[in-house]
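BUG: 3D viewer hangs when loading the predicted structure for this chain

Environment: internal workstation, default settings.
Expected: structure renders.
Actual: progress bar stalls at 90%.

Input used:
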Amino acid sequence: MLNLSSPINHTFAPHVDTCYVFHALWLAMQPWKWRKGKEQEKLREALEQYFDADVTLFASGREALLALLQSLKVKEGDEVIVQGYTCTVIPNAIHATGAQPVYADIDPETLNLTKETVEPLISNRTRAIICQHTFGIPADTEKLRTLCDEYAIPLIEDCAHIIPDVKGPKEIGKYGDYLFLSFGRDKAISGIAGGALVRKGPRMAGKFHMPNTFQMPHSKTIRLLLYPLIYSFARPLYGIGIGKMFLWLCGKLGLLVPIMTNNEKKGHMVMTFHEIPNAIAGIAVAQFQKLQLINDHRRILTQLYLQACKDNNWKTLDGITEDLPLQKFPLFIQNADSIRNQFKKYNIHLHDGWTGCTIITESVHAKTIEKHILNLPTHPTMTNKQAQKLIRSLKNIHQ
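Structure tokens produced before the viewer hung:
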């Protein structure tokens, strides 16, 4: 059951393969291209053509969201409706404007907002609704669009977990006034960092005001570019402890950029905006060009896990279908934390970016899901063989 050289994981550089490492190293050796160059424009143009909309690039998805809220003049005393099961960075961006997040319960079969949970929360202070496609499961944006039109409220789609391709899902990005994307390390595509704001439709023309932006320090850019190399060394050695020690040492030496700062984990976000570095945009462009390949790989693993759920009578979500390129595959069991901890000794690491970093309100469905959810990896470096091994391991432990 133990495989020392091939850890199953969510967060050990999930997009990083050999080509990714060499691309990052090639960019790292050209410091004159770190900040400015052709890659920024390539990425913006590719996204604008793809979404048929105006696109603005940022150093992260959370900065893109904050810039949008600021442009919408969201301020102290205002409210923004979000779902009760979400990542900390979403309410952080709302708090940074002085406004308050209002948490709506989620549909237990999609983990997303619904018209029925949102409408009772709308007030004369509501300035926006942020709709999240959790783990790549589409929310019912068509109904939310109708609701937003009725109350004249902007609909913002969080597409960090999924970017649709020619196979769909067709509804994602179709009904929102704005979309924001994240190119973080474990997102739909990864540029190591970076994000984008997509402004849809003629009614949004002229309604976004670009904030003043700063350049990312070279010291941070080079650390981001070294991340693929560091993890490509640590990952195969993690099971024997060397990789874990190496990552700890790199962290102590300040060679790793944390996904969230300590202040962000405490709920604080500074209203400062940065341009996406040209080097980071270059990696994101290469990933975007592989979107179909990445999504098809995720579909294969989604289908494999769905079949395992049917064969073993495991609980998953009715909202998951075989055609979805899920960012993670959610499974629901009584002892999720116990299984995560048991799996560590077999070099299976199922603690993901959402374990311990989510906002769980008193809403019934969100709290229940947090207790029982066990996410299975679907990322590009998770192989079919590893997925089958994970299924066998689950069968042995969870009987």
